[in-house]
Amino acid sequence: MIKAVIFDVDNTLYNFTKAHKAAFRALAAYADERLGLSGESFERLHRETAEELRAYMGEVAALHNRCIRYQVMLEKLGLPLYPHVLEMEGFYWDTLLKEAVPSANAKETLRSLKDRGIRIGVGTDMTARMQFRKLEMLGMLAYVDFLVSSEEAGAEKPALSFFARCVEKAGFGKKECLFVGDSLRKDVLGALDAGLQAVWYGPESPAEEREDVLRITDMRQLPEVVSAL
Fold this sequence. Notes:
6-stranded parallel sheet, alpha/beta, 52% helix
């Protein structure tokens, strides 16, 4: 019997891909106007910096810290950190939050599960503060009983320690916890490897079909899945 449902955030509870594209366009416009970097040059530098940080830092939550990313970019260009680091971070996140649209029926599904006495958790690769801001903006934070970020867990999904922290906070056995996410590798297979149950969420057809995992295309299907497990 499922007693806790733990949700990924980005591309699960809202469309991160679409919101990110809008935020990156705003950031590129800033770089063009204030730093004299063309869109192509900025995109290349942004990608190279992200790759450099990943190689240096490993898979940790700080990789998502936009202040660090823009700081390193500007240092490489020999440009002043003030006022650009904080302004660039603000442009990115303010635009993303404004453009973020809840996944269809996600809020209603959280409410339905909550009304049935299911504990609602969030398990996310990100810094905690930004995920709290997203959940608040999406109108979902009031339904959340606990949250595990990779910043708190000290590891990103699909690390076993990440899912162990989720189970610990849920307060139930592994098989009583259901993880829901869009990433087959990180969310679904990661949770299954850690002993939890899992559902793969994706409104569009995946590049890879997997008959060995549960998959839903609409959040409205989730309560029925919960009842069946």
